Amino acid sequence: MNRLKGKTAIVTGATAGIGYKTTELLAEQGVHLVVTGRREERLEEIKEKLESEYEVKVQTAAFDIRDADACRSFVESLTANIDLLVNNAGLAKGTDPVYDAEFDDWNTMIDTNVKGLLYLSRLIIPQMKERNTGHIINVGSTAGHESYAGGVVYTATKHAVKAITESTKKDLHGTEVRVSMVSPGLVETEFSEVRFKGDKEKAAEVYKGMKPLVAQDIAEIIVFVANRPAHVNIMDTIIYPTAQSSATMVHRDV
């Protein structure tokens, strides 16, 4: 059953990977979209593609989610009520130990993964609360459930996303606004290339000898979570590829 048709969703970090696939699957369900990211040209390509293939309206907004003023201006520019906010924008930078990491990497992860998510949630939730309807879906990570060496700040940010999700649900207790999280393990997207600062060979090693998840897998789960009946709130889903059993346990055929 399609319970999403005609609704309007914001998807952050929509230019690639999980964000892009989520926009595509939501458009298939007849959801009107507001897609955000930093690559304006890519956003316009997405708008053209989705509007030509599906009977939906697509609005684009190119800005850096780390900029609180830009987030505020974006929300003030919206012309439709938002039924679904998918806080997908996020990244990892580096795998250095805590005693050797770069401050700039830490700031980028904290500002994007935590503060950016909070900014948009803070600005969108009031209209949902006023209408007593809506859904926030935060894209977390299995790193929000298990810390590992070399991921001190990335795992901290994803633990923060878990805490934010749980606290937001409690803040909205007694309303009809739903709050959820999706927590993927190894997903082959641009994620590792960003983490290793453009080193494609190093990024490829992450997935060597195993079949990782792909963006489509997670997008399907996001849409499934969003499409539950209004009285059903899925708080979290933890998704590993079959070859992965924890952050550090990955079976490889090599």
TrEMBL record:
* A GO molecular function held by the record: oxidoreductase activity, acting on the CH-OH group of donors, NAD or NADP as acceptor
Question: What keywords are annotated for this sequence in UniProt?
Answer: Oxidoreductase
Q: Which SUPFAM superfamilies match?
A: NAD(P)-binding Rossmann-fold domains
The domain of life is Bacteria
Any matching Pfam family: adh_short
Which InterPro entries would you find in this protein's record? NAD(P)-bd_dom_sf, SDR_fam
- The family this protein is said to belong to: Belongs to the short-chain dehydrogenases/reductases (SDR) family.
Family matches, as PANTHER family: ALCOHOL DEHYDROGENASE
What's the protein here called? SDR family NAD(P)-dependent oxidoreductase
List the taxonomic lineage: Bacteria, Pseudomonadati, Balneolota, Balneolia, Balneolales
